Amino acid sequence: MRLYHKLITLMLFCFSALSCYATQWQLDAKNSTIAFVATQNNAPIQGHFSVYKGDINFDPAHLDASTVNITIETGSIAFSYQPITEALKTAQWLDVANFPVATFKASRLINAGGDKYQANGLLMIKGKSLPIEVDFIIEKSHEDKMIAKGKVTIQRLIFGIGQGEWADTSDIKNEVVVDFNLVLEQDAEPKRSAQVKR
Question: Closest Cα partner for 113 from 140, 147, 143, 136?
Fold first, then answer.
């Protein structure tokens, strides 16, 4: 009888532990976007990153177990005007030779009401990590697919983006708005990460 009770206790413990795991998701390689808008001479200029990957664990019922880990290859930055694209890869800007990736990692997610959420984590660009709050909404199309979309404003100079003459914000503003639209599919194979290539 004692062994029976131990087995029941163990089964309940395992069930409780498993129920606290957040669902794993992978990025839809075709439809996700990470773009940004800067301001030069009071006019918006738009660009995007084309290569990134992510490990995302998310469950509204278990936000304490939810995490976000996004890695962006800085060398995949692109503008419609090629000279700007190449300039942004240099040491004065993103310095992709020495800092090939930027990351956002969050382990504290909170519900901000309804389908609105906030991810609190660290954004690392050019080797410098700073705390950041990212607001996003969840649009769920069906049980194994959802969309996370939102915007966040960063200060480029804090991360050393735009040095020397480009540190003057009279021509290029300090604020850069990052706009993301992530299409996520439930991961059938845990511990996999998805990579986006365009």
Answer: 136
Q: Is residue 2 part of a domain?
A: no
What does pTM read for this prediction?
A: 0.82
For residue 182, the domain's CATH number is 2.40.128.110
Number of domains in the chain: 1
- Cβ atoms of 47 and 39 closer than 8 Å: no
| Structural domain harbouring 64 | 22-197
Asked if residue 96 lies in contact with residue 102, where contact means CB atoms within 8 angstroms, the answer is no
Contact 124, 159 (CB under 8 A): no
Does residue 181 fall inside a structural domain?
Answer: yes
* Domain-embedded: residue 40: yes
Cβ pair 166, 93 in contact under 8 A: yes
pLDDT in tens, 51-81: 999 889 999 999 999 999 999 999 999 998 8
Give the strand pairing for 67-73 and 101-113: antiparallel
